């Protein structure tokens, strides 16, 4: 069994500042770290799918180091559009995979238990949308061809699909068609995991399941109407748990950061028999 937690879109700020004036993202990220450390069984690793900082500010990476140092499991990082890949790599020189690839690209291959993780860098300096570029696509194709029998998760910040939230679709992965071609060719890809949309969303790309994780901070409002404004809210912060066994393949669970009321036992009443629940 291999268990990977995916958290995303932390949008950390310099100490004392809130994100967009009202989202206390540093505190929300600390709360997520506590939730992950309390898990039993503990995940084998945590993957953070980008937007770790809010404005790619060096002070935000100092905060990121402080907060993420609290995690009691290996940490795998990659850039989002709010990050500066070079600063992120410099802030986490010991992060697995950060010794691979160019110093301004967070792309690498790693093994986590039975799963292979391929992290991509879809960030484009100064832009909200993402691209991988031909070099990185060719590298990905080769990396997949090198281990066709190892179940693999591909991690990238920008979703390679359109989700119907128009203002987010405008800044998705712009070379998603090229990415889809590569996905079609490699049967071992068990999941494509993304962030960016600050909502839990599922789709497919090149015949593979795409799982876009909710944020551990604020969420993007579910707005499927054309022309709907870009807004966020405080729907429950959540993360994904990717659970792999040879028998079931990869199963993705949603877990909430905050504790909910309960648990309660299933109970039908005194003397009442109940076939199940
Ligand atoms: Fe984000
Ligand atoms: Fe993003």
Question: Any overview of this molecule?
Answer:
The structure is a single chain. The protein is of the alpha/beta class and 277 residues long. It has helices spanning 25-37, 58-68, 85-91, 133-145, 166-169, 176-185, and strands at residues 2-7, 45-49, 75-78, 108-112, 115-119, 152-155, 189-194, 201-205, 208-212, 219-220, 232-233, 238-245, 249-256. The protein has a six-stranded mixed beta sheet with strand order 4-5-6-7-9-8. It has a five-stranded mixed beta sheet with strand order 3-2-1-12-13, with no helix packed on it. The protein has a two-stranded antiparallel sheet with strand order 10-11. β2, α2 and β3 form a beta-alpha-beta unit. The longest helix has 13 residues, at 25-37. The protein starts with a strand and ends in a 21-residue tail after the last strand. The relative contact order is 0.16. The model has no long low-confidence stretch (mean pLDDT 97). The site of one fe (ii) ion has 6 residues, from loops.
């Amino acid at each position: 069994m291999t268990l990977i937690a995916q958290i995303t879109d932390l949008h950390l700020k310099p100490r004392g500042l809130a994100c967009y004036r009202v989202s206390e993202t540093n505190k929300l990220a600390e709360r997520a770290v506590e939730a992950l450390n309390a898990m039993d069984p503990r995940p084998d690793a945590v993957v953070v799918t980008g937007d770790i900082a809010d404005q790619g500010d060096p002070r935000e990476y100092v905060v990121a180091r402080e907060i993420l140092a609290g995690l009691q499991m290996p940490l795998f990082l990659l850039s989002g559009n709010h990050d500066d890949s070079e600063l992120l790599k410099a802030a986490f020189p010991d992060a697995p995979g950060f010794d691979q690839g160019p110093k301004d690209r967070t792309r690498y291959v790693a093994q986590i238990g039975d799963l292979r993780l391929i992290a991509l860098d879809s960030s484009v300096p100064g832009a909200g949308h993402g691209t991988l570029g031909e070099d990185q696509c060719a590298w990905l194709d080769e990396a997949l061809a090198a281990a066709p029998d190892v179940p693999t998760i591909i991690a990238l910040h920008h979703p390679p699909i359109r989700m119907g939230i128009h203002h987010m679709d405008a800044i998705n992965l712009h070379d998603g068609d090229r990415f889809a071609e590569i996905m079609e060719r490699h049967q071992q890809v068990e999941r494509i995991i993304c962030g960016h949309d600050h909502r839990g969303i599922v789709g497919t790309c090149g015949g593979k399941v795409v799982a876009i994780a909710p944020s551990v901070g604020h969420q993007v409002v579910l707005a499927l109407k054309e022309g709907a404004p870009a807004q966020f809210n405080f729907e429950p912060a959540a993360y994904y748990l990717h659970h792999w066994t040879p028998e079931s393949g990869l199963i993705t669970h949603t877990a909430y950061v905050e504790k909910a009321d309960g648990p309660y036992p299933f109970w039908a009443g005194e003397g009442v028999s109940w076939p199940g629940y």
